[in-house]
Amino acid sequence: MTATNDGEADMQIAVVIVAAGRGTRAGGGTPKQWRMLEAQPVLAHTLALFQSDPRIAQIALVIHPEDSDYLTAVNQHKLVLAVGGATRRDSVLAGLHALSGTRPTHVLIHDAARPLTPQPVIDGVIAALDHHAGAAPALPLIDALWRGENGLVTGTPARDGLLRAQTPQGFAYDAILAAHLAAVGDAADDVAIALAHGLDVAITAGDERNLKLTTPDDFTRAARILRETMDIRTGNGFDVHAFGPGQSVWLCGVEVPHSHGLVGHSDADVGMHAVTDAIYGALAAGDIGQHFPPSDPQWKGAASHIFLEHACALAHTRGFSITHIDCTLICEFPKVGPHASAMRAAMAAIMGLDEDRVSVKATTSERLGFTGRGEGIAAIATATLVKA
C-alpha cells in the first residue's frame, strides 16, 4: 500500500486485532471489547484506527467463537475473521494464519481494548519497521515500584530500564509467524515471543491516551478522553459540468449511458468532484484545482477517483476519519435513481466506508436555470470528518 516514505512504500501492512478475551474485570456483563463507549462498541473505535488508513491492506479480527452475533455492530471494511484459541498466543497465531492468503510483508498486532491509540503511535511503529524486525510503543515508569505480600510492602525493586508496554506491536510478518510457531507456552505479549526467537525489537514512543480498558474506571476515563479530544469538521463542495459530445456520463464513479457526455479536463465526474472538494474543505486544504491544476496536461482525461483517493489520504494523514458523505446531483436527465445504489457502492469502496455512510441522491431544478434547460449537471456535497 502507498505510505509516507520510500521504505514504507514497499511494505504490505496488515493488522491482527485480538478480541477473543472475556474481559470480566471491566464489568458490565458483556465482554469489554463489545461494551458501548460513547455510542459505539469499544471494538468499533479500535477498528476505525486502521480501517481508514490507506497503508493497511487487511485486518484479521480474532474473536471468541460465541461472539459472532456482535459483528453486526461494527464496520467490517477490510476484515477477515479468525476464531480465537485457549491462550493469547493461540489467538494471535490464528490471526496470522488468517492473513496467509495475502501474505503481507509486515503486521501490526493490537489489543481490541485499546480504542484510543493516537495516530503518531501507529506511525512511529510503522516507521521503525523500516529498519527493525520488530517495533513496539512503550512509556517510561515514573512511580516507584513495590513488592507486596499480605498487605505489606516487602521490597522496593529498581525501576531503571523498565518500561510500560503498549500496542500495536509491529513485526516483519514471516519473522513473527515463525516466532509464534516455534514458541512454547503462552507469553505476556508478542514482543516476548519475538525476543525468545532472537528478533530485535525497537522501542517507539507510547502515549498516555493509549490506555488498555481493563476496569470500569478505565471506561470512564476513555469516555472523557473521547469527548475532550474529538475534532469534528464539516466541508461543502460544489461543481458544475456542461454537456458535450459523448454517449455516457461519469457520475459518482459509475458510467451512465446518455445522449451526451460531460465536458471537463478530467473525466468530468461532477459528483465525485463535489465530494472531493467537500473533503478538502473540511480540512481547509483548498480545492481540486489547487492539488491537480487543469493547466497540467497529466490530468487531462484522468479518472476522478484519483482526486478522491488523494483527498481521503490527506484526511488520514492529518488524523481524520471520514464518517459520512452526502452528495446531491442536480439535473433533469439522465435519471439518477436507477444507478444510485451502484454510485454509493463505488464511492464507498474508494473511500473505505460502509455504504450506509455514503448518500447519493438527485433532484431537478424544476426546469429553471442551466440544469433545467438541460445544459449540464451540478452537484453539491457535504463531508463530515472526525479526529479523535
Written account of the structure:
The record marks 25, 32, 265, 364 as: Transition state stabilizer. Residues 233-388 are annotated as: 2-C-methyl-D-erythritol 2,4-cyclodiphosphate synthase. This is Bifunctional enzyme IspD/IspF. Keywords: Isoprene biosynthesis, Lyase, Metal-binding, Multifunctional enzyme, Nucleotidyltransferase, Transferase. By secondary structure, the protein is of the alpha/beta class. It has 2 domains: 6-229, Spore Coat Polysaccharide Biosynthesis Protein SpsA, Chain A (Alpha-Beta Complex); 231-387, 60s Ribosomal Protein L30, Chain: A, CATH 3.30.1330.50. 29% of the residues lie in helices and 28% in strands. The protein has helices at 6-9, 42-51, 88-98, 119-128, 173-182, 190-196, 216-229, 270-282, 288-291, 305-317, 340-351, 369-372; strands at 13-19, 36-37, 40-41, 56-63, 79-83, 106-111, 134-140, 147-149, 152-155, 163-165, 169-172, 201-205, 231-244, 248-251, 254-257, 261-262, 321-330, 358-363, 376-387. The strands form 5 sheets. Strands 1, 4, 5, 6, 7, 10, 11 and 12 form an 8-stranded mixed beta sheet that branches. The mean pLDDT is 92.
Task: Give a short summary of the structure.
With 388 residues, this protein is of the alpha/beta class. The chain is 29% helix and 28% strand.
Helicity range: 25-40%
For this structure, what is the CATH class of the largest domain?
Alpha Beta
Q: Averaging pLDDT over every residue, what do you get?
A: 92
The span between the termini is: 24 Å
**Strand-residue fraction?**
25-35%
- In this structure, how is the largest beta sheet organized? 8 strands, mixed
Structural class: alpha/beta
Radius of gyration: 24 Å
The fold-level CATH name of the largest domain is Spore Coat Polysaccharide Biosynthesis Protein SpsA, Chain A
- Assigned CATH architecture of the largest domain: Alpha-Beta Complex
Catalytic activity: 2-C-methyl-D-erythritol 4-phosphate + CTP + H(+) = 4-CDP-2-C-methyl-D-erythritol + diphosphate; 4-CDP-2-C-methyl-D-erythritol 2-phosphate = 2-C-methyl-D-erythritol 2,4-cyclic diphosphate + CMP
Protein name: Bifunctional enzyme IspD/IspF
Keywords: Isoprene biosynthesis, Lyase, Metal-binding, Multifunctional enzyme, Nucleotidyltransferase, Transferase
Cofactor: a divalent metal cation
